[in-house]
Design brief:
By secondary structure, the chain is α/β, with parallel strands linked by helices. It contains twelve helices and seven strands. The structure holds ligand LZY4JE5M and NADPH dihydro-nicotinamide-adenine-dinucleotide phosphate.
Length: 332
């Protein structure tokens, strides 16, 4: 009996390894395929704004230790900002902060903070004030997500995403907003949401609900807090390959090709492209942009939305035949 249990456990582990091996390989280099026409849309990953655009500025980026947050921190730091990155895992934050500081020559500070906890945010802001003063740029980027049929979702599964994404963004924004108002200091707030904040999406229902809430929060505050010198903007990215996102949204790698097929520009976005847009929206060059929602998705959203867009698959011969049929129709 015991031997049978051990054998079945060993088999289970073996099967798991076999299943997971391609996963580890895929995320080791975060490579992705692309369609031939993506050659027309080659990414420009160099820094777009003039050097020194963020000199004497302080930028606070939640989730700045990994993925897109790390890319945005790198660009802002390269452009002269003193950056403060915050999230739960201090070791990862510190490593990222050291690497970026070394690369750019500008100090990046790491502060541990769980954005679900308003007291932790207040303590984090105290630490930031002591290190750098209040920020000029705030990027609410921290998030949590996983694909899950809604009927399998527990109350705590729902709550964990709402707490990170919607409450985390609200607590961070309110804490910093109030302190900035008290100090009569203007600032640029940017939220990273997603294209399905607009449409909703099955299988990521907590994330869709929370991100839609963040969009509403930022549009509302753009209207209310302009009088205090605050701008609020939103970037809604489409798929950009990061370990954090793809390990939770496409764990087997099965859907990546289908995703690329429906993106008119034939490829995924690049972290550096998003970082350039975020830097622009957070800069003085964008001082008249507030309340804007920028979709950044290579055309994926409209491609999925249009009733007739699947006709892209129709060949020239099939078009000839269909045109003949349509033209030959008489009456209604
Ligand atoms: C057609 C397919 C398309 C494929 C798409 C591919 C690519 C992407 C394209 C577009 C992307 C668009 C938007 C992306 C949005 C993003 O936000 S991506 C960023 C994702 N990054 C992260 O999630 C990083 C942080 N995440 C985490 O730390 C964890 O994943 C988590 C969010 C779960 C929070 O961790 P923690 O606080 O430790 O929570 P717990 O582990 O305790 O879990 C809390 C409850 O949630 C339940 N749960 C966890 N995982 C799952 C799951 N996979 N399925 C169901 N339920 C889950 C867990 O059981 C706990 O509930 P209970 O206490 O058990 O009831
Ligand atoms: N990559 C993509 O395709 C897309 C991403 N997005 C959005 O872009 C942003 C970045 O995602 P991406 O870089 O891909 O994924 P990551 O998983 O790399 O980034 C999420 C970050 O959030 C931090 N975080 C999670 N929970 C908390 C918490 N409770 N408190 C503080 N920080 C937390 C994580 O750090 P830690 O674990 O240390 O706490 C991590 O650094 C997210 O807002 C995501 O929704 C939107 C559309 C597409």
């Amino acid at each position: 009996m015991a031997a049978a249990t051990i054998r079945s456990q060993t088999e289970f582990v073996r099967a798991g390894r076999k299943l997971l091996q391609p996963w580890f390989h895929r995320f080791a280099g975060l490579q992705s395929c692309s369609a031939p026409h993506s050659q027309f849309f080659a990414p420009s990953e160099g820094i777009m704004l003039p050097a020194g655009s963020f000199n004497n500025r302080v930028a606070f980026i939640t989730g700045g230790g990994t993925g897109l947050g790390r890319a945005m921190t790198t660009v802002l730091s390269q452009l002269g900002a003193q950056c403060v990155i915050a999230s739960r895992k201090l070791d990862i934050l510190q490593q990222t902060a050291n690497e970026i500081s070394r690369q750019t020559g500008n100090k990046v500070h790491a502060i541990q903070c769980d954005v679900r906890d308003p007291q932790a945010i207040s303590h984090c802001v105290d630490q930031m004030v002591a290190l750098t003063g209040l920020p000029d740029v705030i990027i609410n980027n921290a998030a949590g997500n996983f694909i899950c049929p809604s009927e399998r979702l527990s109350p705590n599964g729902w709550k964990s995403i709402i707490d990170i994404v919607l409450n985390g963004t609200a607590f961070t924004t309110l804490e910093l907003g109030k302190r900035l108002i008290q100090n009569q200091k203007g600032a640029s707030f940017l939220a990273i949401t997603t294209i399905y904040a607009e449409s909703g999406s099955g299988f990521v229902v907590p994330s869709a609900s929370a991100k839609a809430g963040v969009d509403a929060l930022y549009k509302s505050l753009a209207a209310e807090w302009g009088r205090y010198g605050h701008r609020f903007n939103i970037i809604q990215p489409g798929p950009i390959k990061t370990k954090g996102a793809f390990s939770r949204l496409d764990p087997t790698g099965t859907f990546e090709k289908a995703m690329i097929d429906r993106i008119p520009t034939g490829r995924l976005g690049k972290p550096a492209e998003l970082a350039n847009l975020a830097a622009y929206l957070s800069s003085d060059y964008a001082s008249w942009i507030s309340g804007a929602v920028i979709r950044f998705d290579g055309g994926e959203f409209v491609s999925m939305a249009g009733e007739f867009n699947e006709l892209r698959r129709v060949t020239q011969d099939q078009w000839k035949m269909m045109e003949t049929m349509i033209r030959s129709t008489k009456g209604s």
